[in-house]
Amino acid sequence: MPQAPSKARTATADEIRQAALEQFARSGYDATTMRDIASSVGIKAASLYNHFDSKEEILWDLTRAAMHELAANRDDALARLDPSTGPRERLAAFVRAHVGFHAERRYQAVLVNSQLGSLSRAHHRKAIGLRDVYEASLKAIIDAGVAGGEFKVSDAPLTTLAILQMGTGVSAWYRPDGRLSIDQLCAEHVKLALALVTRGPQ
Amino acid sequence: MPQAPSKARTATADEIRQAALEQFARSGYDATTMRDIASSVGIKAASLYNHFDSKEEILWDLTRAAMHELAANRDDALARLDPSTGPRERLAAFVRAHVGFHAERRYQAVLVNSQLGSLSRAHHRKAIGLRDVYEASLKAIIDAGVAGGEFKVSDAPLTTLAILQMGTGVSAWYRPDGRLSIDQLCAEHVKLALALVTRGPQ
DNA sequence: ACATATAACTAACGAGCGTTAGTCTAGCCC
DNA sequence: GGGCTAGACTAACGCTCGTTAGTTATATGT
Q1: d(Cα B18, Cα A117) in Å, to the nearest integer?
Q2: pLDDT tier at A131 (50, 70, 90 boundaries)?
Q3: What is the pLDDT of residues B145-169, one digit of tens each?
Q4: Residue B151 placed within a domain
Q5: Which nucleotides of D are covered by protein (CB under 7 A)?
Q6: pTM, whole model, 2 decimals?
Q7: Is residue A202, in this structure, part of any structural domain at all?
Q8: Which of A23, B32, B64, B199 could cross-link to B152 by cystine, CB 3.0-4.6 Å?
Q9: Is the pLDDT reported for residue B202 higher than 50?
Q10: Domain with B143 in it: what CATH number?
Q11: Are residues B5 and B86 located together in one domain of the fold?
Q12: In which domain, by residue range, is A123 found?
């Protein structure tokens, strides 16, 4: 029992993280074995325990990091805006960040979107909490737009989920060699999201 | 090796289907054991093999049925329309059927949306084929609306996926005792979908 | 009533899983 | 240069998995 519990930032630990992320996202947590992960890194399964305490700890390490990076990515995008920026531009910035993350870092996105159920109960609760905060941050933008009269929505909570869900889905089908670049994808999604909060002349 | 290979429509087989559906949807295919399923039905794991040849066959039986019922549900909704019905009403009917299915039969929907990866390669291919046909049927409605000038979209394939994804997401969070009834949910989603194909005055 | 088929049971197999124990080796610090 | 430690290794444990074999009981059809 040598080193610090889990925060190890060594090169091998990062290789393990990378291999586990790809396989958890591609095949699912249950279908991925410790021997699979170790083999990708070029070591034996038992050696993984020099870097992580358990398989679930690897999943949680990855999930936690992905969710924090998703939030940080959004914060960066919104922080770049002038404080007086209106809701339309704030929504656009959120959607660009959201969709960009789900395309550019789709393995992390897939993990967050489909493997939360494999976490321990305590970690699952924390993940749901982070997700709720993330959702609330979009809802706040929409609510502000509605309050200011720039947005018109029939049901704000449902519209929030719809916008998130459109972008989340990107991680399921996006491929780097696809028809649209990430910038185009983000731009299209911004148009779609704005359409959802702008009741046209019916 | 007694009975017909797999088409058995006995009461016990249906109980097995029901139990497996719930647990596959709730916990995932890999995390559900044959002993879990058998226990829900009140029999032993070995007895499951009087009704199905393998665990994967249960999953495929359920997946296949769910996808066919999803398509049949859409066909019913569209068949009720007058042949001269315009694209807006056709899109509305599709979305009502799509969202209604994903709320009312969310276990089947979850299976189709998140457990396809556990199918054998041959079955997986068939499932992807059915999904592609389903997606194409929505795209055809959108294309028709664009061709007729009733719809204005920036990117038809992306808009198709966005509408599907909004509805698909419902199966992940809908609960029968939730804030909105299924009818309300469908009506809201129709509004959202129509907003996506109707470029307002920007 | 008796043969037959259906569908349950108990028992177990072989494989694979996450994980642990104990060992060996190479590089770093005094 | 000798001790120490990080991190790899081999071996194996205990468990659970899907599945099979063989047996038994309960209905049904004539």
Answers
A1: 21
A2: very high
A3: 999 999 999 999 999 999 999 999 9
A4: yes
A5: 5-12, 16-22
A6: 0.94
A7: no
A8: B199
A9: no
A10: 1.10.357.10
A11: no
A12: 55-197
> What is the per-residue pLDDT across B61-116, written as a single tens digit (0 to 9) for each?
999 999 999 999 999 999 999 999 999 999 999 999 999 999 999 999 999 999 99
The CATH number given to whatever domain includes residue A43 is 1.10.10.60
Asked if residue B101 and residue B162 are part of one domain, the reply reads: yes
Tokens 């394939």, residue?
Answer: B157
Which residue has 């339309």 as its token pair?
A: A88
Q: Using the beta-carbon criterion (under 8 Å), do B118 and A31 form an inter-chain contact?
A: yes
pLDDT at B200: 60
Note whether B148 and B182 are same-domain residues.
yes
The answer to whether the beta carbon of residue B45 comes closer than 7 angstroms to any atom of strand D is yes
- In this complex, the answer to whether residue A12 has its CB under 7 A from any atom of chain D, a nucleic strand, is yes
Q: Which one of B30, B59, B124, B175 would you mutate to disrupt binding with A, by most A Cβ within 10 Å of its Cβ?
A: B30
**Tokens, residue B131:** 């999904």
Q: Is residue B129 classed as helix, strand or coil in its secondary structure?
A: helix
Rounded to an integer, what distance in angstroms lies between the CA atom of residue A48 and that of residue A41? 10
Note whether A44 and A134 are same-domain residues: no
The C-alpha atoms of residue B46 and residue B127 are separated, in whole angstroms, by: 28
d(CA B13, CA A127): 37
Cβ within 8 Å, pair B162-A192:
yes
pLDDT tens-digit series, residues A150-199: 999 999 999 999 999 999 999 999 999 999 999 999 999 999 999 999 97
Residues B40 and B135 in one domain: no
The two three-digit tokens of residue B7, written as one number? 């088409």
**How many domains is chain B partitioned into structurally?**
2
B85 touches strand C (CB under 7 A): no
Place of tokens 């249950």: A30
Protein residue with the closest CA to the C1' atom of nucleotide D6: A2
Within a 13 Å sphere around the CA of A80, how many CA atoms are in the beta-carbon half? 11
In a domain, B202, yes or no: no
Measure A180 CA to nearest chain B CA, in Å. Answer: 10
Interface of B with A (CB under 8 A): 27-28, 30-31, 114, 117-118, 154-155, 157-159, 161-162, 164-166, 168-169, 173, 179-180, 185, 188-189, 191-192, 195-196, 198-202
Helix or strand holding residue A181 (H, E): none
Strand D close to A18 by CB, under 7 A = no
Distance of residue B199 Cα from the nearest chain A Cα, in angstroms: 7
Q: What are the chain A neighbours of B173 within 8 Å (beta carbons)?
A: 161
Which of A114, A188, A200 is facing B158, going by the closest CB pair? A188
